[in-house]
Specification:
The chain has nine helices and twelve strands. By secondary structure, it is an alpha+beta fold. It has two domains: 160 residues, Jelly Rolls, CATH 2.60.120; 78 residues, Winged helix-like DNA-binding domain superfamily/Winged helix DNA-binding domain (Arc Repressor Mutant, subunit A). It has a five-stranded antiparallel β-sheet. Strands 3-8-5-6 form a four-stranded antiparallel β-sheet. Strands 10-12-11 form a three-stranded antiparallel β-sheet. Helix 6 packs across helix 9.
Amino acid sequence: MAETQEIDCINCLKGNIYCCKKCFEDDEIYIFKCLTEKELEYLIDEKQQITFKAGETIVKQNSSSTYVVCIREGLAKVYIEGEKGKNLIVRLIHKHDFVTGGGLFNVELQPFTISAATSVTCCLIDSVKIAKLFSENKQFAIELLRHHTKQNNYLLSKLVNLTQKYMPGRVADTLLYLKNDIYNDNIFTVPFSRQDLADMSNMTKESFVRILQQFKESNIVAVQGNTIEIIDEISLNSISKNG
């Protein structure tokens, strides 16, 4: 089960009451940087910091969720649970990602599941507090809306790619997404099964494995277990562009 940490960080042991606030001040997400000292103190009051083991569910689809998830460490997958056990992974979230649950501006149920791909440490913040700050701090509201727009634009682009591209293009998109957006390196080791990678590409595991093998035989990528190396990024981008 997920472990709730009574102490948010080592600095708390030293009696530093600002350690939780410092956590957000150092955040790469500009959303929280436009909050005043008083607003930050309000935001972090009674927040929870929880560590989830790999495979554990952080947020469950079709459940009510009254908090916002801020990823501090680790990697998690966001996916839609479809019929007959088929899932569609729509994005990955990692350090400094900020995910709102159902209930931020409405009372609808959570439209997706978030589960930990690695050990994940995240802060859970009451969405009521986020909504209050949204109504009181204009710059915070603007940054929050920009963040939502960026997420929605990405999901719209992914929807178009998954429905209009052939399978090689979708596999190329998945590999480029991992390389450019998650690991920022040509060589990376993923904590995902082949089924997970197939779920990111909206295809069966057998089809994904077959196309990945074709890329390998064409010297576009090198694959050793869960370690993938992008050898010919130009060709991979061409496959992605041409679908």
